[in-house]
Each structure stands twice: as structure tokens, then as C-alpha cells.
Amino acid sequence: MILTANEVTAALPVLDAITALRSALEAGLDPEAGPPRTTAPLSAGHLLVMPAEWGRHAGVKVVSVAPGNVDLPRIQGHYLLLDAKTLAPLRILDGIALTAIRTAAVSALAVDALAPPGAARLVVFGAGPQAYRHVTALHAIRPVSEVIVVGRDPDRRQALVSWCKEQGLAARNGAPDDVADADLVVCATTARTPLFDGSALPAQAVVVAVGSHEPDAAELDRATMTRGPVVVEARSAALREAGDVIQAGLGEDDLVDLATLVRDGCPDATVFKSVGMAWEDLVLAAHVHESA
Predict the structure, then answer these.
(1) pLDDT tens digit sequence for 101-119
(2) Does the global pTM surpass 0.85?
(3) Residues 55 and 155 in one domain
(4) Would you give the end-to-end CA distance of the chain in angstroms?
């Protein structure tokens, strides 16, 4: 069976996705155990291949990136879920919808362990699909009441502000300096260089960065990355792919993996840097399959 983007979205409410990810980590899933993402260059762009195995399931996500596409999306992809014992195909899911849901759900899982219970003021950098997903996910776990949107495109920025207001949230256009009063900061952009001055952050503010998995791109500056331990999905992946981590000169001892955060907590951490990993897609694809 092939599930469309709308069917994947309907099958994965954000709180269900967060719970599924948390349950897998609490049950012993080790993000370090999976193979790394593979990138294959092609004449029209490149392919990203992300395999994983956990419990009764294995799977692989294949995403194509074709920068020159005009009438088709620049990024396309599907997820193939397999039975772990026989490797027989079980289900195919729209990979872009799955990625969109899991990225915000992983962030919310980390924020739920890091942020004060009353965190209400959210500053969002970016106005693309992940900005919307993160507003929804963080509002599901914290009493977010105000959203400040910072972005380069005024039309997209205003569209997100208007959408937030439709959800019953106070919202306005903002500037990088607005982080000085933030409880939560989400960076979901294509920026190659830091978006704000980390020295302006309040001590209690929790920062999430999801915009890149490239060593030469960083949304966060060194001041932000050295506030305390940095939470990452897996140390090896972060040290290989996360420009925010690499450019800040951080090492293994500066990082806390997400599984440890979920199982044991980390009271000194206020930053979560995500690169996106294959196990996250697998957990949620399996959840969709078993819930059908």
C-alpha cells in the first residue's frame, strides 16, 4: 500500500509522533547504531539514502534533490518500510510528509525535556513548512501564546503571522533582537551563517536548530553553542554533519545525545541541534503501519 502525503499527515498527529519517538528511545533504540546518510551525486542533482533497522522493522528513505525543477517539486521522496526478518516490503509512505512531521516531532521531544513548563514566547526564524510544523508541535507541548516571525521574505513571513493568528496565537513580524525576550527559539532556515547574537539570549531560553545537515552551514553562533551541553540526536552524526557543532569547535564531551536526554535528563542543556536521522523516519513509518 502507498500512503499519500495527506494520508501520512492524517495518520501521524503530532502528539502521537512525539510519543512514538520517546517510546522507542526509552525502549533502548540506539541512534548511534544506524548507518550514516549517503549522498549520491547525479546529473540533475543528488539522492539522499537513509536506511535503518529497529525491532520488527527495517526501512529506507530515498529523497531526490533536483535544483533545476520548475514544474515539479525540487525535493521529492518516498519511504519503504520492510519486515525486519524477511525484508519483505510492507508499506510505502510519502517521504516528504514523513520528514516534515518527524523533524518537528523530534524537536518537540527535545524541547519537552529542556524547556520550563511555562515557556510561552516563541521566536521563529524562517517561514517555510518547518516553521509551521514547529509552531504546531511546540504549541502541543508548551503553552505558547505569542509567536514572533523573523524571515527574509515579507510575504511568506506575513503568511505565517496570519496563520498563527488563525490558530488563536498572538503573532507579529520580528527581528533577530527579539531573541532577548524569548522562551523558545526555532531556527528552520537555509541560512549558511548565524541568524542572531547568542549573547542576547535569556538564560532560560531553549534554542532549536533544524535548518541544515551540512558541515559548512550554521544557523547558531559560538555564543549560543557554548551556553552549556548541546543536545544532538547522536554524537557521531553531529560531529560529521552539523555545521553549528563543527564550526563552534565542539567535541564529544560537549554533546549530549537525545536518548540520554529522554532517559536521564540534562538540566544544564538549553540547545538542541538536529540533523535528521534515519531511525526517526523508521519509528514513525512503523507506527503508522502498526496503527492502521
Answers:
(1) 999 999 999 999 999 999 9
(2) yes
(3) no
(4) 11
